[in-house]
């Protein structure tokens, strides 16, 4: 029997946290440790890149003026088309979710690192935690989320609050997550705790393969 990778599923850590909690900083640290990162937000963009079936379906549905001058998807235009139109939004989600899920599962399976990290802001909301062996919540107080988001995305604190309110509550996520990493403190402390978790995940991954 050949020991190729395709018949075993990798051990998957689901990494999540609300907007502005510092998920990227944490996933970057894990990437530096040699762990493959599969990011749901990046995949969501990849499935509608020029030439993809996803984008072809969107053009067929909305027409060519959904594209920008470079032939790429005009996200602002798409947002405004679905913003006040629940049917269009439902149509788009029905198209994109299966495409995203398929690519996500393929990428998780093909990862060659000791374990693999699935980064998704809506990990629990979209039921992606079912593909994970364990979940890690990057946790900061809501006030910190608002401050960081308004600074980074140049939006008002009202807008930031709306985005946060649309996500699962911090308390609910804390209940659902297997592990919680407090990211509202000195980065070195965060790193120390993350290293401990990383070593634990390595052990788990080895013992379940």
TrEMBL record:
Classification via CDD domains: DPCK
Catalytic activity, EC: 2.7.1.24
Keywords: ATP-binding, Coenzyme A biosynthesis, Cytoplasm, Kinase, Nucleotide-binding, Transferase
SUPFAM superfamilies: P-loop containing nucleoside triphosphate hydrolases
GO molecular function, one term: ATP binding
A cellular-component GO term for this protein: cytoplasm
Catalytic reactions on record: 3'-dephospho-CoA + ATP = ADP + CoA + H(+)
InterPro entries in the cross-refs: Depp_CoAkinase, P-loop_NTPase
Pathway entry: Cofactor biosynthesis; coenzyme A biosynthesis; CoA from (R)-pantothenate: step 5/5
Domain of life per record: Bacteria
One biological process term in Gene Ontology: coenzyme A biosynthetic process
Binding site for ATP: 20-25
Function recorded in the entry: Catalyzes the phosphorylation of the 3'-hydroxyl group of dephosphocoenzyme A to form coenzyme A.
Family indicated by similarity: Belongs to the CoaE family.
Protein name as catalogued: Dephospho-CoA kinase
Source organism (scientific name): Pseudoalteromonas haloplanktis (Alteromonas haloplanktis)
Gene encoding the protein: coaE
């Amino acid at each position: 029997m050949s020991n190729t990778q395709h018949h075993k599923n990798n051990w998957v850590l689901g990494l999540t946290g609300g907007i502005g909690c510092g998920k990227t900083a944490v996933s970057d640290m894990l990437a530096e440790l040699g762990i493959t990162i599969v990011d749901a937000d990046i995949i969501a963009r990849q499935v509608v890149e020029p030439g993809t079936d996803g984008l072809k379906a969107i053009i067929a549905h909305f027409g060519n003026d959904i594209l920008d001058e470079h032939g790429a998807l005009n996200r602002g235009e798409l947002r405004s088309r679905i913003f006040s139109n629940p049917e269009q939004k439902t149509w788009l989600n029905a198209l994109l979710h299966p495409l995203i899920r398929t690519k996500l599962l393929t990428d998780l399976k093909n990862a060659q690192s000791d374990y693999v990290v699935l980064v998704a802001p809506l990990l629990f909301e979209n039921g992606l935690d079912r593909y994970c062996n364990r979940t890690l919540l990057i946790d900061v107080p809501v006030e910190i989320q608002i401050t960081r988001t308004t600074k980074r995305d140049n939006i008002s604190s009202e807008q930031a609050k709306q985005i946060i309110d649309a996500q699962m509550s911090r308390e609910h996520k804390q209940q659902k997550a297997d592990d919680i990493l407090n990211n509202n403190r000195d980065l070195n402390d965060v790193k120390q705790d993350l290293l401990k978790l990383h070593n634990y995940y390595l052990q788990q991954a080895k013992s379940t393969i």
